[in-house]
Amino acid sequence: MTPDRGFVPDDVWLLRQVTDPRLAPDGRHVAFVVATPDRETDTSESAVWVTPTDGSVPARRFTAGPKDSAPRWSPDGRFLAFVADRGEGTQLLLAPLDGGEPEALTHAPFGVSGPAWSPDGTRLAYVARTGAWTEPDAKTAVERSAPTVVTGLRNRLDGEGRFDSRRSHVFVVDAGSGEAMQVTEGDFDDADPSWSPSGDAIVFTSDRSDERADREHRDVWVVAVEDGGTAGTPRRLTRGLGSAASPRFSPDGETIAYVGHENEAGNSAANAHLMVVPADGTAPPRAASAALDRTVFGMVRPAGSPLAWSADGESVLFVANDGGRQPLYRVGRAPGSAVEQILGGDRQIVGLDAVAGTVAFVSVWPSVPPEVSVTTEDGSAVAARSAANETLRAAVRFAPLERLTHQAADGTTIESYLLYPDGYVPGSAVPTVLEIHGGPHGWHPQASMLPLYQSLAAAGYAVVLPNPRGSHGFGEAFARACVGDWGGADFADLMGAVDALVARGIADPNRLFVAGYSYGGYMTSWTVGHTDRFAAACVSAPVVDLVSMWGTTDIPFFSEFEAGGTPWERREEMIERSPLTYLPNVTTPVMVLHWEGDLRCPIGQGEELFQGLRRLGKEVVLVRYPGGYHIVRTPSQMADFVRRHLEFFAAHGGLALP
After folding, report:
1. Tens digits of residue pLDDT in 484-494
2. What domains lie within the chain, and their CATH numbers?
3. Measured at the alpha carbon of residue 608, what is the angle toward residues 642 and 441, in degrees to the nearest 5?
């Protein structure tokens, strides 16, 4: 039966996130994580679920929660290790598959992450923080008053917060005795451990350069781990260029595949690649996916593996963005191997695993909530294997997406996605929202914004999601096309997408609205300073002043790259490209939404926009959300965020709330 209503903001509480699919060694079961919003705590509580890959019985909840993640099968399939908080912080637990209570293997003072089984099933590697640290509530008054001394540009990271003296290192714990050994050490942060097939080495990523206090890059390293527990000296396999994530040994132990690049600092316009490097270090890394000319998913550490070796070890499966979709690709390990798409369609794959010819993956689309599916290594016989969002899909009618194109003035083809409003009558012109993605090297559609897109469509708006110059998914040259030109051709591309919908009779030119987040917030602010065609604008987590943004963001090299230099080198150009400069031109009512904990686009940017418009006597309101980061928010905040868009547009000529 088709649901009788569309999405509303409070449906955020029904939306479950599904992540990190992991296949059992025989490929007959898959474990995954389901995060469920909880009204009482206003957080998402997570648990591990397990289901057979043949679909013979429904998925079942395997762990109790409330903060369980990272399921990892033992090589013999008898145990499932996972990370959970049972009152001692996030520790590594071991649960028998034939029944029994999970037992804690670790008791790390600051918790653990990233578990990985040794091939013989006797040990697990993991990452834990080391060093001295005292809980704020346990400090004396003098300690609480002590300053923080900052000596490097990399002193904070959005999503993590301010750095302290602790460092993350690789450990190994005995699965039987619980005896743990620290494998890496030093004034470095290590991550992503994974074992060699022989069990005598661990590959991991780390930034151990002399410039690590100021510039971030991650190399791939290998360290020997002997049977007696003694670790060797780490050996670097990459060249101190760019960054690396998720390294994995090939089944024969001769090659390591990882997601990475050798790009200059701050250059997020260039593609990330599926990289391969000999495990013995006899040759430099090679970009196996370069011919694809698409950015490979997984550089920002995802909640799930972005790559997997094929069963025969001759190729690697990975995910890349292609025009907003994220298909599954395969490339051979041999130089010159062709890249082959093995599973496409309207989906964004966000995590995968492959065992014995079976591939499990999580995918999502703005009209399809996330679930686990399985397929074969050739992409045939795709079948859903979870129903985490069954309640939501039974209650809500989702608006589908259509891909459209228009020609820019210079002949460039610009693609957009369109959500038609609920109950749309072909040939009718309707209120339309231009929703601008972040980045600028992001892409539409952004599945994380499903509640916003679907709520707008359910309320009766057409929602256009353009991919202007600067967007990934259309080749590296297209992604670089907005560098040094924010507010130029990218702005024209966005207006062209709206013009095309008006020309087709879909968008009502008298009832246009605009919204955007991050760089989308920048562009929304720029838009209202350069045109009065929109009835109202919602500006979220924006950049409005390129000079102050450089001095306050956690990624200053990104700002330099996009602007072509520092404020003392490019000050006039930065001012010219800053929406703040054009606030006197604004006639559009503006709502600014920003999180106080944002370290990427600090809330000062939103405050500058609000204060400037208010000082000029313009119609503006600032919505400040406590806590959070740039892309982290509580379920209630997300519901409120969506609701405020609907209310603000309704108050300025839009549609009444459903």
Report:
1. 999 999 999 99
2. 398-650 (3.40.50.1820)
3. 60
